What we know:
Elements (H helix, E strand, L loop, with lengths): L1 H20 L6 H5 L5 E8 L9 E6 L5 E6 L5 E5 L2 E4 L8 E4 L1 H6 L9 E4 L6 E8 L9 E2 L17 E2 H10 L14
Antiparallel strand pairs: 1-8, 2-7, 3-6, 3-8, 4-5, 4-7, 9-10
The chain binds N-oxalylglycine and nickel (II) ion.
Amino acid sequence: MEYNKHINILAETLFKLLSEALGLQPDHLSSMGCNKGCSIVSHYYPPCPEPELTLGLRKHADAGIMALLLQNHVTGLQVLHDDQWFDVHPARGGLVVNIGDLLQILSNDKFKSVKHRVTANRVGPRISVACFFSGHADMLEEPFATIKELISETNPPRYKEFVLKEYIDKVLSSPIDSKPAIDYYKL
Ligand code: OGA
Ligand code: NI
């Protein structure tokens, strides 16, 4: 409960900085409800005798708005860049800030979600705590689209408008390794 409180305060600050980076008022993303709907998911990756035969977590991009990840000292998280996997070594006391697909849509691709995975390890256990922001419940029934202040003649929308609830239903019901929900809305 205590951790959640601190995470919410940090998220508020991050959403301010992200709003400013988009050239918007600092409270823009939070006033839309982006800083709400935090759920905490903890992962426990046991040591694996044959790590080359499996993965801790398959390749994916986070579907929500933003994720804040705390990891213990065991390396395993990797990000995909130019078709190559790079380790995200844990930094003591540091958190990983991950842009989710919904923030990519809101920003019209100015912010990019990144594909990542977790390898299996001979050493362990690896433990991580992910806090996912999926937005205020009021956003669920509303049309969801790129922030209109970011759209112009030279920067036309790259995504169709949709209802967030449908998107989340897609994310939750899609089989592993199927087309990511974001791809259905690309123009
Ligand atoms: C996730 C995730 C990474 C980790 O839960 O979406 O990417 O280190 N977790 O557990
Ligand atoms: Ni993830």
